[in-house]
Amino acid sequence: MKKQIMAIIQARMNSKRLPGKVIKSIQGKPLLFRLKEQLTWSELIDDIVIATSNNSSDEPVDKFCKENNIFCYRGDLDNVLKRFIDCANEFNIDTIIRVNADNPLIDPESIDNMIELFNKFPKTDYINNVHKKGLVMGAGCELVTTEALKKSFAMIERSPYIERQYYFEHVTVFIRKHTDFFNTIKYEPPVELSRNDIFFSVDYPEDLEVVKIIFKNLYREGKYIKPEEIISFLDQNPKIAKINSHLHDSLPDW
């Protein structure tokens, strides 16, 4: 059976800072629709699945998937690492592009660059594009093998000295902090696309306001919005960039 590279979108309704953000409207469509739209421009992922929880609060996510013919997996609410592993097993996924549902402006070109890098170095466990020199926050993602997630899960369960729930909730942080046990690569985009002063992930109401403005000005049917376009637009409109800049820290070094 062919090895599959699939994007797994991590989505839930009960966000503390912006509840229900994954189905908030952007240019007349839910945020998840806009994210899926950007992802479809990747030429190297085989398909997309949304991994949500089996909690009743996430029924709207399941409903969205059914209405838009998107694969949906429902699993553990709090142990997101287990949810990813179970989803990968269900869909026979060998290599995962991990996508947060708060990134409707994810960059499909960088996804393909990361997959090409993985194909060049097939023993790689993890490619990190969410670090300080990675893509601007809101455009990046991660590549991780299912086997690496299983290995990290087993190591977390065996260790009595770590905060297990933290690592279960933050799917790849154990790998990122324990690179001596995994073959990892830090993906570094062109320097002009690595900006620590611009943010277009959707965590707060102000973020959603910025993203709506970006879509209103840059979205064109039949095209995806590139990070360089967004950066140029925000540089030309610094008042828009300031709407949410005070709410975020720059991406970590690890």
What can you tell me about this protein's structure?
The protein has 254 residues and is an alpha/beta fold. It is built from ten helices and nine strands. The chain has helices at residues 31-39, 59-67, 80-90, 108-120, 146-158, 164-169, 173-177, 205-218, 227-236, 238-245; strands spanning 4-10, 25-26, 29-30, 47-53, 71-75, 93-100, 126-128, 142-145, 184-186. Helix 3 (80-90) packs antiparallel against helix 5 and helix 8 (205-218) runs antiparallel to helix 10.
TL;DR of this structure?
By secondary structure, this protein is an alpha/beta fold. It has helices at 31-39, 59-67, 80-90, 108-120, 146-158, 164-169, 173-177, 205-218, 227-236, 238-245, and strands spanning 4-10, 25-26, 29-30, 47-53, 71-75, 93-100, 126-128, 142-145, 184-186. The longest helix is centred in the last third of the chain and has 14 residues, at 205-218.
| Strand segment count | 9
What's the multimeric state?
single chain
Mean pLDDT: 96
Q: What would you call the structural class? A: alpha/beta
Biggest beta-sheet profile:
7 strands, mixed
Provide the gyration radius in Å: 17 Å
Query: What is the number of helices?
Result: 10
Distance between the termini: 35 Å
Give a quick set of tags describing it.
10 helices; alpha/beta; 254 residues; seven-stranded mixed beta sheet; globular; single chain; two-stranded antiparallel ribbon
Q: Topology, please?
A:
Blueprint: E1 4-10, E2 25-26, E3 29-30, H1 31-39, E4 47-53, H2 59-67, E5 71-75, H3 80-90, E6 93-100, H4 108-120, E7 126-128, E8 142-145, H5 146-158, H6 164-169, H7 173-177, E9 184-186, H8 205-218, H9 227-236, H10 238-245
